[in-house]
Amino acid sequence: MIGAAIGYTMNIPRRLIAAVMAFGAGVLVSALAFDLMDEAYRRGGFDSTSIGFVAGALGYTLATLALNHRGGKRRKRSTAQPSEEENPGSGMALAVGALIDGIPESIAIGITMIHGGAVSTVAVAAVFLSNVPEGLSSAAGMRRAGRSRRYVFGLWTAIALISALAAVAGDVVFSGFSADVIAGTTAVAAGAILAMLADTMMPEAFESAHDWAGLITVGGFLVAFVLSKASGA
Fold first, then answer.
1. What is the pLDDT of residues 170-210, one digit of tens each?
2. Out of 8, 99, 139, 202, which residue is the most buried by the measure of CB atoms under 10 Å away?
3. How far apart are CA 213 and CA 219, in angstroms?
């Protein structure tokens, strides 16, 4: 919601949007590598973790392919999003696409609370730092495509609420499952997040940040890595 509000009401330079998105991508890569995948391996070993990781990436890719044909391909782009007149149904595709991106992250946060665990500070920070530029970029593109203020903020409010429910489900629903199922689900979220980064966030970041995108991504990774080690100390 913060990102969407900024993106819709202010004219943020595309290079700045791309830089923040690259930073958020680096944070997410660190979080899924040192937090989600490590937790999945600790609970279920290589088999559950590997199967879940590939399944998450495959599921995300297939869902994205379906959405691309409905007008959701550029859901995180700050420019060139299709309008409803140009591509009927693209608005719904944008909404579904945002949910596909957000739900795995939220479920992963909820899973960290299972059996009395505390919410992972790194996972929450990673999701926050990546979702702000996602909302910013997407809302800016929706505004340029002519979508109304009610549509944009109604959409992002619904996404925030559903993501919150997904986090609760990650704790409540999966707490009764075996360690292998919990591990596999955590890895599914990690696989979907990594596929999302490669498919949407990094191309958008590189398109505008160009040669600086890699360095900024490394900075985001390092910040999350430090947070991960500091919180585990």
1. 878 877 788 888 888 888 888 888 888 887 778 777 776 66
2. 139
3. 10
